[in-house]
Amino acid sequence: MVIHYLGHSGFWIEMEERLLLFDYFRGDLAPLKEKVKEKPLRVFASHAHKDHFNPEIFSFMEDGRDVRYLLSFDIKGDPQIPENADVQYLDANETYEIEGLGTVRTLRSTDLGVAFLVITNGGTFYHAGDLNFWDWEGELKEWLAKQESVYKQEIGKLAGIPIDAAFVVLDDRLEGNFAEGLRYFLSECSARYILPMHYWKDTSVVERCRELPEAKAFAGRILDTVHEKEWKI
């Protein structure tokens, strides 16, 4: 399979039998639009924030192509969704069998919407959406404790599951706490490759993450999403 990074939290994956698109916000969709002529596409959006849900995803609905949208429950009712779109809304903490795809398990986000665990016959993928330990400086201790508790509870549901590619939040706005969520993910989960995402202006967080003591054991498996945009795995 080939994984393509579109920026922020957006990725698309080309597999032998299908295409997957996650949390499109920005970036060039032209190569994917060419591929949709050949293979079915399943489009995921983890929640309604504009940096995760861009109505441009509905531009794939052309010429009877096999395109289906798997959207978080909080997006339902958005007036930008075409009436003729093939949409299924997914609730948190549920398991769905999706025809022509496989199994989709959803986790509860610590912000809005859901995270996705997608299990197909060609690979298993985790996309965090905004599920992260949002360890903001200056927040109330009680709020932070709840954040940490929910995050660890949800990530614990992935323990022991072999994941081929994990798209995990790394947010520079958290300053010194930028990697707290990813640190815990590394300690609990098994993934062949980890692709940091969701960083904004300070792209150095990716290299700093790769230099963390906890990350040393994952040398070569935490991919450089700043300087590389395509990986064959």
Defining key terms:
7-stranded mixed β-sheet, 6-stranded mixed β-sheet, about 15% helix, globular, 4 helices, alpha/beta, about 230 residues
SSE layout:
Layout: E1 2-7, E2 10-14, E3 19-22, H1 30-35, E4 41-45, E5 67-72, E6 87-90, E7 95-98, E8 102-108, E9 114-120, E10 123-127, H2 141-156, E11 162-169, H3 180-188, E12 190-197, H4 204-210, E13 230-232
Parallel strand pairs: 3-4, 4-5, 5-6, 10-11, 11-12
Antiparallel strand pairs: 1-2, 1-13, 2-3, 7-8, 8-9, 9-10
Helix pairs in contact: 2-3
How far apart are the first and last residues' alpha carbons, in Å? 6 Å
* Derived structural class: alpha/beta
- The helix tally amounts to 4
> What composes the largest sheet?
7 strands, mixed
**How big is the Rg?**
17 Å
- What is the H-and-E element order? EEEHEEEEEEEHEHEHE
Strand content: 25-35%
Per the principal axes of the C-alpha atoms, what is the gross shape? globular
Order of strands across the main sheet:
6-5-4-3-2-1-13
Mean pLDDT: 95
Q: Which stretches of 5+ consecutive residues score pLDDT under 50?
A: none
| Structure summary, number of beta strands | 13
Secondary structure: helix percent: 10-25%
